[in-house]
Amino acid sequence: MTIDLNTSNIAHYLLLPLSAVFYLLSLVRKGLYRMGLFTTHQFSVPVIVVGNITVGGTGKTPIVIALVEHFKQQGKKVGVVSRGYGGKSKDSASQLVDENSRAERVGDEPMLIYQQTQVPVMVNKNRAQAVQDLITQHGVDIVISDDGLQHYGMGRTVEICVENGFGNGFLLPAGPLREPKKRLKSVDFVMQSTLKPMAFIHLKTQQKQPLDYFQGQTCHAVAGIGKPRKFFSTLTDLDIHLICHPFKDHHAFVAQDLNFKETHPILMTAKDCVKCTPFIDENMWVLQVEAQLDEDFLQQLDAKL
């Protein structure tokens, strides 16, 4: 086997001893749960975990939103729990997301889920507590956890793993894996997130325009998500000429970030737009997307529940 020892690969291999430590610690942690020394909380309603075994964006949140709508159509009262990654709240109690919440406090993904579904969304680093609070305070019939595959203190009925590749295949910190790939054998479903662009929505007026609205135009493309290049590629496929502005995942946007010299339209993801509410202007648009869930998958999921 030939190993390409470029600078990046050398760094990854130097970190492998730390990955071995990470792996051993994760085995010990899982073992303590299995032996009952750590508590796994069970609940009176089904809990569906939509997670992954890698760090970075794999498109979990659009799938959560699509599942919420699926169960709402069945007449179920759905709740969502999230860790609230990116939020700055120090409160150890669960926080219910509502119209007065701010993404900088509760996190961008919980804010987006609430805005698009209007179901109870509970944020807590202790996901098990968030689930129980949803059941007790809001009488939900089913709970969906946005991420949390590795949160073994939270019991679950179904595990859905969303993956779009495994990088170099190494565990953290040498690679992107939170758990070994063999973990996929124990989940109920493994899937990729397939997002379908639907329309452009003007942030200030909420006016909706078709996907060819910016065809042939030059636009700013702004993305603070795990894989901004996927967003840029989607826009390029719509024949839009882009000036790309990638930011780190969960970036806390301020008005200055979008103060560009050229006054072209600014195209953003829905996840980023929820953080820009205080400084929305006439140039800002969001690309509306929907996760496409296979009918066979939904039937199998319903059967498991």
Structure commentary:
The chain is built from nine helices and 13 strands. The N terminus is likely disordered. Helices cover 30% and strands 20% of the residues. A seven-stranded mixed beta sheet has the order 3-4-2-5-1-6-7, sandwiched between helices. A six-stranded mixed beta sheet has the order 9-8-13-12-10-11, sandwiched between helices.
Could you estimate the helical fraction of the residues in percent? 25-40%
Give the termini distance in whole angstroms: 46 Å
**For this entry, what is the oligomeric state of its chains?**
single chain
Along the chain, the helix and strand elements come as: HHEHEEHHEHEEEEEEHEEHEH
Number of helices: 9
Q: Which radius of gyration do the C-alpha atoms yield?
A: 20 Å
User: Structural class per helix/strand content?
Assistant: alpha/beta
Largest sheet: 7 strands, mixed
Q: Looking across the biggest beta sheet, what order are the strands in?
A: 3-4-2-5-1-6-7
Provide keyphrases for this structure.
single chain; 305 residues; alpha/beta; seven-stranded mixed beta sheet; six-stranded mixed beta sheet; 9 helices; 13 strands; globular
In short:
By secondary structure, the chain is an alpha/beta fold.
Give the topology, please.
Elements: H1 7-14, H2 16-34, E1 47-51, H3 60-73, E2 78-82, E3 95-96, H4 103-106, H5 108-117, E4 121-123, H6 127-138, E5 142-146, E6 158-162, E7 189-191, E8 195-202, E9 208-209, E10 218-223, H7 228-237, E11 241-246, E12 266-268, H8 270-273, E13 284-291, H9 295-304
Parallel strand pairs: 1-5, 1-6, 2-4, 2-5, 6-7, 10-11, 10-12, 12-13
Antiparallel strand pairs: 3-4, 8-9, 8-13
Helix pairs in contact: 3-5
